[in-house]
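Backbone-to-sequence.
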């Protein structure tokens, strides 16, 4: 059965980030409206909810398109994605005026200051997390859909 393999790859790719983002949105809503934490939900969630699931699906389609002879194992392929997402998120944030660079860190929404050491810790953790998610979860969904 080889019907619509790219559509199946896209669907296998969007499952994990869609579920995670729904859980994150639930946490944001509870924090904002239940605990009255001043988090700008609409600003903090628009980019991830609009872009990340689609990029996961497209990245999985790209993995399938590369074929068995030209691609990395799926875990390593997925570990490359945060190295693309972080600079593109910065570029979009800088372009829209959401982010600005300061001497101590990045100013987010003109209210949150994130130190540069945070990024030095988060990037390697993100690469490891993406590796594990792609190797075990997306790889599993690819097998279930018959495209692995």
């Amino acid at each position: 059965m080889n019907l619509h393999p790219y559509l199946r790859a896209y669907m296998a790719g969007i499952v994990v980030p869609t579920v995670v983002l729904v859980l994150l949105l639930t946490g944001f809503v509870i924090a904002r409206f239940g605990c009255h934490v001043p988090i700008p939900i609409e600003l903090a969630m628009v980019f991830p909810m609009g872009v990340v699931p689609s990029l996961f699906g497209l990245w999985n389609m790209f993995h399938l398109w590369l074929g068995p002879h030209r691609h990395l194992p799926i875990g390593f392929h997925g570990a490359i994605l945060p190295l693309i997402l972080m600079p593109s998120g910065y570029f979009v944030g800088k372009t829209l005026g959401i982010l600005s660079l300061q001497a101590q860190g990045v100013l987010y929404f003109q209210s949150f200051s994130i130190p540069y050491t945070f990024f030095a810790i988060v990037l390697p953790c993100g690469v490891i997390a993406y590796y594990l998610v792609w190797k075990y979860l997306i790889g599993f969904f690819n097998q279930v859909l018959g495209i692995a």
